[in-house]
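> @MW can you paste both from yesterday?
MW: sure, first one:
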Amino acid sequence: MANVFEFVAEARSATGSIAAKAVRRQGKVPAVIYGGEAAPEMLVLDHNEIVKHLAHEAVYSHVLDLKIGEKTEKAVLKHIQRHPARPQILHMDFLRVDESHKLKVHVPLHFINDAVSVGVKKGGVVAHSMVDVEVLCMPSALPEFITVDLAGVDIGETIHLSNLVLPAGVEIPELHHGAEHDHPVVQIIKSRTEEAAE
C-alpha cells in the first residue's frame, strides 16, 4: 500500500477560478502550500489518490511529505474545501512545517468508555459538542488524536477543554484567552424517556 502520509503533487502556473475548474475537469484537485520563508506555491494533485489518503483519519493530524517534482516538503493539511452535494474535493491548503517552530493544527478527539460511563449506566445520553480540537505544539510532539475518557462522567456533568488530558508538549491555544473560552467538549444529559418519567 502507498504511504498515506505522502502526497504527490505537480506545480501549476495558472491561477484563478477558470483555471481551477479546468484542473477539476481533468480529475485533479487544485491546492496551495504556504508558510515559512518560501512563497506560496500553487499545486495540482490527483483526486482519486487524495480520496484514498483522506480515508485514513491519521492524515489530518500528521506531518506529511508533499512531493512536488524532485523536491519533498514537510507540511500539514490545513484546510479542505469539499463540494456541498457531491463526494468531490474542490481545493486543499497545506501549511509548511518548520521543525524548529510550533504549529497549530486540529487533532481528532477519541471518546472511550461511553457505554460504561456512570451517567450512561443511569440512562443518560452522551452529547458531543466537539469532534476535534486545535492544539499548539512542536511538529515532533503532534499527537495523532486526544483521548477523552467518559468512564467517570455522570448525568449533568460536562468535560471542558481544560479537562482534556494532553500529551507532553501539547497545549490548547483557545485556553489562553480566558475562562470564557473553556468550551464544553462532551456532556452526559438526561434521556427524553427519563425526563418523561420524571
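MW: second:
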Amino acid sequence: MDQSVSDQSTRRGVQSVDVGGRLLTELCEFKYPVRLKELAEASDMAAAKAHRYITSLVRIGLAEQDERTGLYSLGPLALRLGLIAIERNDIIGKSGVVLRKLCTEVQTSGHLAIWGERGPVLIRNEHGGPPIISSMGIGAVMPLVRSATGRVYLCYMPRSSTRAIVEQELALTEMNESDVEPIINETRARGFARVVGSVVLGLEAIAFPVFNFDGSLACSLSLVTTNRGSFGDESPAVKLMALAVEELNRNWGAVPKP
C-alpha cells in the first residue's frame, strides 16, 4: 500500500476516535441522561452523524441507551475504565492495600473515597468480617456534613469546592452554617472524622485523609461498625488506623496543606 494512502487511513481512524471522544466528553458534562438531539448539539454535529457514533459507543459499552426513555448516558465500560484508571493511580492503589489490611485486622468493613463532581464518591469497599449491609455501595456520594468521609473532605478540600454542596445539604437538614465551622475544627484537631448514626442509624464510622505530594487531599479511608463505642479516640481500632495512615502518608512523602 502506498505510504500516503496508509497515512490518510490512519488519520481518518484517529479522526473517528476524536469524534467519539467528543460525544463521550459531552456525556460526562451532562449531569443526567440526555436525548440524542441535545447530545448532537452539544457536540456540534448533525444528529444523524451523532447517532452513528453513539450506536457504536453503545455497542462496545462506553455508552448506554435506556430502552424505555431512549436517553443516553455513560455505559458500563466507561465506568470500568474510570475505576481502573483510579486504581492504577499509585497512591489510590497503596491506599486500597492499607484499607484491606485494616478491615482484616479490625474485622469490620471500610471504604475508599475520592472527590467527584458532586462530592466524595466511594470507589472501593472492603470487608474484613461479616459484611455490613447498607446503601453505601460503589459509586455512592457521601454527604459532606453528616458522614465521616464527607467531613474529611469538608475539612481538607478548598472551601470554593465544597461551598455549594454544603449549602444544598444544609437546606435539607436542621443544621445551619454556624454548625459547619465547629465540625471542621474538630476534624482538623483530631486528624480524623467520626460520626455515629448520622447517615445510617446504628452505624459508627471513622475516616482519615490521605494526601498527595503537593499536600492536596488524594482520598479518604474509612471504617464502619455496628458495635457502638468501638471508635473512641483511644480505642485500639482508631490507634491502629491512625498509625497505618500516618505511615502511608509518610512513605508517600505527603504533607497536608496548612
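> thanks! The longest helix spans residues 3-29.
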